[in-house]
Amino acid sequence: MRILSRIKLPAKLENLERLIEFVSASANEQGIDRKRIVEIEISTEEALVNIFNYAYQNTDGDVSVVCKSDDNDKFIIEIEDSGIPFDLLSLKEPDTNLDISERKIGGLGIFLIRKLMDDIQYRREDDRNVLTLVVSKSHINENNPEN
Amino acid sequence: MEINSRKEKNIPVVSVKGRIDAVTAPEFEKNMSDLISKGENNLIINFADLEYISSAGLRSILATAKKLKAEGGKMLFAGLQGPVEEVFKISGFYSIFSIFDSEAAALNNL
Which of A:50-89 have CB within 8 Å of B? Predict the structure, then answer.
C-alpha cells in the first residue's frame, strides 16, 4: 500500500472544507471521475463530522487523513483520531421506509457511507480510532439513477 | 451555497446552488424556517444547481418537512440530478417527498 498524501488538522468543523478538498484532490490525481469524487467527499464529511461531534465531544484533538493507493484498483482513505473509542459501524441503520412524522432526524450519515463506499472498516489501534474507507476504481454504481 | 427565493403563482420557489454540507446546512434550515414564520406552508425547492448534499443537509430538510407537516403544508422538490438525486434515492426521500423533473411540474401539482 502506497501513501499518496497525508494531512493532520485540529478536529473542528472549520477545517471540514480543507480536509474534504485534500481528499478530493488526491482522488482526482488517481483519475477517479467527478461523480465518484462527490460520493467520496460526502462519505469523508460524514466520517469527519462524527469525529468532531462524538469522538471529541468533551475534548479537543486532531484528526489525520491519509490517502493511499494499492497501485491497482483501490483508493483508500484512512481517517484517524485519538478521541474516545467510537465505532461508527456499530450504529443502527435508520429505517428509510418510514414517513416524515416517524423518520428520525439522525443516523443518516453512516448509512450514506455504507451505501456510497465499496468497503468500510473500523479498528481501535493503541489509543486511536481508525476508520478506513475503500473505493474501488472499477466500481459499478448500483445506486446510479442512470443505470 | 447560494440561496435565491422568489414567488411563482404566489408559491415560494427556493433555488439552492452549490453545496449543502455540515457548514452550510444551518443557513439553509434558517432560510426555510424564516419562510415558514412568514406564513408560507408550501415550498418548492429547486435543486437543479445543487452539486452536493450530505446527511447534515438531509437532516435540515427533514426538520423543515416536519414543521411544514404540522402546519398542513409540504415541500416539493424539482431538478434533482447527479449525486444529489442519488443521495435522495438511497435515503428513501423519494418515498416521503414529492419530487418533480421541473419547477413547472411541481407548481402544477399544487
Answer: none
